[in-house]
Amino acid sequence: MYLIDSANVKTIKNLFEHYSFAGVTTNPALMAKENRTDFLHHLRDIQKAMPDKRLYVQINAEKYEDMVREVASFKTTLAEPFTIKIPTTKAGYKLMRTLHHDFNIAATGVVDFHQGIEALEAGAHTLIIYVDRMLSHGHNPYKLLQNLSAIIQREKREALLIGASFKTAEQIEKALLAGANQVTVPPALLENLFLKPLSEKAVKDFTKSFQDQYNVKFIK
After folding, report:
1. CATH for 54
2. pTM here?
3. What is the largest CA-CA distance in the chain?
């Protein structure tokens, strides 16, 4: 249900060692933030940090012909499973129609109902909804998730809804309740979702009781 929204190989590896995730999402900005010049090798390093989990890699080009060239590079470099994130632009819709029989496709940057429907019609297997970005522009991402989820169920389509662009835990919870099948979350937010002071204190209290009674740190 959770995906890691990051391109930092060390962070990804550490998170997978402790928690369960469906995969990793990247985008051009996250990749550039890591200050590496070997883009394709960088993607392979991310895959090695999470064997057998899905990598979402985004198209960088804007023109259709250049997009096709990028896809060819992904095909020869990446191991399965991976999904190609295609922006909901005019060239992007065309690329979805071209590729959906041969690749797993995610339409990214969806902020409108009709964008989502057109992406589904073009063959997208996944829709990525920008939650905080929509909220900051006065739009309602939760209603969008509900409406798209209703259409997907009504039409009996096998399509996923992924919530993205989060700033708070409350946004993530609301997105999941509104119909998102998965959420992709920045590492800085993830551990705040899973680790709570109240739980930590309860465990420490149990441990202290055990140690006081048996005078050992753990059962041997």
Report:
1. 3.20.20.70
2. 0.94
3. 71
- Mean pLDDT across the chain, nearest whole number? 96
Bridge partners, 83 (sequence order): 56, 104
- Residue 30 makes CB contacts below 8 A (sequence gap 6+) with 5, 6, 7
Residue 181 inside a domain? The answer is yes
Domain residue limits at 187: 2-195
Find the helix or strand (DSSP H, E) in which 204 lies: helix 197-214
Whether residue 212 lies inside any domain: the answer is no
Strand partners, 84: 57, 105
Contacts of residue 200, Cβ cutoff 8 Å, sequence gap at least 6: none
Is there a domain that residue 214 lies in?
no
20 Cβ contact list (under 8 Å, min separation 6): 2
Dump the DSSP string for 40-91: HHHHHHHHHTSTTSEEEEE---SSHHHHHHHHHHHHHHPPSSEEEEEESSHH
When divided into structural domains, the chain yields a total of 1
**Which residues share a beta bridge with 81?**
none
Query: Helix or strand or coil: residue 107?
Result: strand
pLDDT 10s digits, 139-174:
999 999 999 999 999 999 999 999 999 999 999 999
